[in-house]
Amino acid sequence: MDKWKLRLALSILFLGLFYGLAAAQTQAEMDKKSCDEYKQSDAEMSRVYQQVISKYKADPLFIEKLRAAQRAWIVFRDAHVASRYPATEPRKAYGSVYAMCRCEALIDLTRQRADQLREWAKGAEAGDVCAGSIKIRDYTGQSTRKMKSNRLRLRARTSKSS
Fold first, then answer.
1. Are 140 and 123 a contacting pair, CB within 8 Å?
2. How many other C-beta atoms can be found within 10 angstroms of the C-beta atom of residue 137?
3. Cα–Cα distance between 57 and 63 in angstroms, integer?
4. What is the pTM of this model?
5. Which residues of the chain carry a pLDDT beneath 70?
6. What distance in Å separates the CA atoms of residue 34 and residue 16, rounded to the nearest whole number?
7. DSSP track, 58-126
8. Which one of 24, 64, 82, 90 is separated from 144 by 20 to 30 angstroms, measured CA to CA?
C-alpha cells in the first residue's frame, strides 16, 4: 500500500510539473499580452470619449472643459506611471517585467477614466442633485432634453389632430 501512495504522489508531482511547463509563457509574450490589452482599453476609452463629445455637442462650454480635463488626465496618467517607475533606465532598475507592469498600470488608469467618462455617456439618475453637467435620464434611459423634444413633438401631433 505504501508503494501505491508513493507512485500516486510522484504521478501527481510530475503531472503538476508538466502542466506548469506547458502553461509557461515567455516574458515577451506576457509583455505583448499586457500591452495589447492596454491598447484595447485605450481604444474603448477613446470610443466612450467620442460618444460623450457627440452626445453633448450642443454644449460648447462643456466640450471645452471636457477636452481640457482629458488633456490634463493624459498628463496625470503619464506622470503617475513615471512616478511608479521613476528610474532613468527602468528595464535595468525593474527588470524584464517592466514593460508588462507598466502596461498593467496603464490598463488600470485607463479603465478608471473610461468608467468616469461613461457617467456622461449613460446619464445620471433622476434626483441626482450632484449630477452637474451630466444629463439626467428618465426610466427609459433617455436624457431629459430628448424627453422634452419628444413631448413637444407629441403635443404638436395632438394639436394638429384636434
1. no
2. 19
3. 7
4. 0.72
5. 1, 4-24, 139-162
6. 26
7. T-HHHHHHHHHHHHHHHHHHHHHHHHHS--SSHHHHHGGGHHHHHHHHHHHHHHHHHHHHHHHHH-BPT
8. 64
Contact status, residue 82 vs residue 90, Cβ threshold 8 Å:
no
pLDDT of residue 3: 72
Phi, psi of 140 (to 5 degrees): -90, -5
**β-bridge partners, 1:** none
Q: Which three cell numbers stand for residue 116?
A: 468616469
From the number of C-beta atoms within 10 Å of its C-beta (0-12, 13-18, 19+), residue 36 rates as exposed
Contact (CB, 8 A) for 123 and 137:
yes
pLDDT of residue 21: 41
CB crowding 114-127: b at 16 or more within 10 Å, else e:
beebeebbbbbeee
Inter-helix orientation angle 98-122/27-55, to 10°: 20
Confidence (pLDDT) at 20: 44
Distance CA 23, CA 29 (A): 12
